[in-house]
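Q: Hi! New to this. If I give you a protein sequence and the SMILES for flavin mononucleotide, can you show me the bound structure?
A: Yes, paste them in.
Q: Okay, here:
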Amino acid sequence: MARIALIVGSVRENRQGIKVARWMEGKLKSRDHTVYFIDPLELNLPLLNKMYKEMTNPTSQLVDLRNKINDAEGYMPVTPEYNHNTSAAMKNTLDYFLEEYYFKPSAIVSYSVGFFGGINAAQQLRLVFAELGAPSIPSSFSISRVNEVFDDNGKLVDERYNNRVLRFLDEFEWYIEALKNQRKNGTPY
Ligand SMILES: Cc1cc2nc3c(=O)[nH]c(=O)nc-3n(C[C@H](O)[C@H](O)[C@H](O)COP(=O)(O)O)c2cc1C
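A: Thanks. Here is the predicted structure of the protein with flavin mononucleotide bound:
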């Protein structure tokens, strides 16, 4: 059981990503995790002007977001692929914070309507999470032709994904547990 921040990467009208994110949320909850569901569409954060730590009077909404990012024991970004990279909405949300992420793992989920499932975005996001101090686990989870994998109501149509996700989640939980145990002994900074 862990506290996991799941970060939605798309704010587009009729976004496919919300289906992936809600499905993943269900998977995590079914394994008894607490999910902090972070949706930039609801947050409507402005393009970064000041990082959270530079703000003298952050809004209660930002305080709440900061507390969730800080309290989370692992991160699961659910990213679309826009021009072979993650989305501006994902990057903007992540950039508000830094130390809050330290010494905790991330598990990257990507998707696209094309055949490659957003793997270019996932690779780019690995670099970002490395810099944030929340290195990504070796596996990433990608969903190709996302518009065919879920129906319009977000119900999973391609049931093979129910099996595919198991090893990815096992691996994520292993790293969450490993780093949690190590943090108990302190961190280098
Ligand atoms: C600005 C933009 C750039 C895109 N670039 C890529 C791309 O590089 N590779 C890809 O496979 N799909 C690309 N797509 C298609 C997306 O995979 C598709 O629109 C997907 O539904 C985006 O996720 P969303 O609906 O959650 O925003 C792009 C879409 C947009 C809007």
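A: The domain at 3-183 is CATH 3.40.50.360 (Rossmann fold). Let me know if you'd like me to explain how to read the tokens.
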